[in-house]
Structures are given as structure tokens and as C-alpha cells.
Amino acid sequence: MPRPLAAARRALLALAAAVASLAAAAPARAEEALVLDNGAILRGTVLRDDGSEVVLRLAGVGKDSKVTIERARIVQRFVTVEAQKTSSRGSASGLAPVEPVVAVRLIEPTAAAVPPPLPAEEPRAAEEDFFSRTARRAALALPSQTGPRLFLILLAFMVELCLVLFAGRMIDVASLTLAKSAVLASLFVGLVGLAIVSSTTMRADQAPLFVPLAVLAWVGCAAGMLRCGLGRAFNLLAFVLLSTALVVFSTGIVLVSV
Description:
Elements: H1 3-25, E1 31-36, E2 41-49, E3 53-58, E4 65-70, E5 74-81, E6 102-105, H2 130-141, H3 146-170, H4 178-197, H5 207-226, H6 229-257
Parallel strand pairs: 4-6
Antiparallel strand pairs: 1-2, 1-5, 2-3, 3-4
Helix pairs in contact: 2-6, 3-4, 3-6, 4-5, 5-6
């Protein structure tokens, strides 16, 4: 055999012997068991512990599987098998087969998504009173866009303006003009809208104070503008309320019958 080949062979044998001695001298790790906060117990060898995460090589799974566990999830940790130094013997070729390393990270189980409840069926007319059905149908028919809502407010103002003019003719208030009727109609629509929109004005503790103040405000404004006295102003308000109630009742009949 040529000398260069013999020298290379001796160098390779020396290198393999050095690697084998280093592997034999490497400190063996003890097998530990980790108890997690969900009750699971994992056994294996701790490869890395940096204070926040623990890398564990699982034992008894047939391949080199690594698991990364958050340190906060570990409830208990104890040694199951003491570390033993074993002498590694190479194969005929001096190299051991390397198995693939699979890194696995534990993921918290997520709760199954709960489907949203199905909408309740609309009650029949015999199962609901007239006012509740009217209010529910009106709430469903109310548009969500700003433009249609402004149109409905304008329509309500125009209807109320006609009712104020009609009430003024009924009780013979000569000083009632279109401009004064518009002011009174605006005030009436504003007070009614405040009572509907606000969640506090019609509460049991606020309504006994809000309703008389609203009535006195409208009557006082009408008496001052029309110079007709409080009596006629109260009569004007009564006609306006009665005619408004008739309009609302007629609208409710339409909503209920649809």
C-alpha cells in the first residue's frame, strides 16, 4: 500500500478515536418528568432550560422528538431515572445513523366555537298585545342610515305642523300663524323625540319630573307666543295630543296588519 494512503488512513482512525472519546466523555443527562398545569405528564431529557422555556427530548416515542414547553406551565418537576454514563460503540463504518429531529411545540387546546343562536320566530298576533307589536314592528322598520332617518324626522315634523294648525282652527286661535305653528311643532317633536331616544327621561324616577316640565314648557311657550292664556294653550295641547295619538294609532294598525 502506498505510504500516503497509509498515512491518511492512520489520520482518519485517530480522528474517529478522538470523536468517540469525546462522545464517551460527554456528561449524560438524567431523565426527568414534567407535570403541566393541565395534568399532562411528559418524560424525557431536558436539553435546554433558559428560565422561560424548557426544551425536552421525549422518551419512549421511537424517535428523537423535541418539545418546547413554557416554564410557567410546569407545575412539578422531578427526576425519574438517574444519569448513567454509557460507552458508545460505533458501527463497522464508525458512523452512527442520524435520525431526523422533529421540533414540536405544545399548543393550548382551543374551545369549540359556539354557533350564534338562531333568531326567535315572530310571535303570532294572538300572543302579543297591540302596543308591543306596534313598537317591535316600528323598531324593525326604522332605517339605520342617517338619510332615511332625517327624512322620517322631517315627515313627522310636517305631520305635526298640520296637526297644530288644525288644533288652532278647532279652538279658534286667531293669532296662530304658520311660523308660530312651526315653532310649536318643532318643540313638540323635540320633546317627544327626547322621551323616546333618551334612556333616562322615562324612567320611573325621572318621568314624574320630566313629563310635567315638558307639558308646562310647551303650554307656556304657546301661551306666550299666541297671547291666548294658559287655558287655551292647554286646550291646544290637548287637541295636538289627541290628534297625534290618532295618527300613531292608525300607523300602528298598518304596521300590525302587514
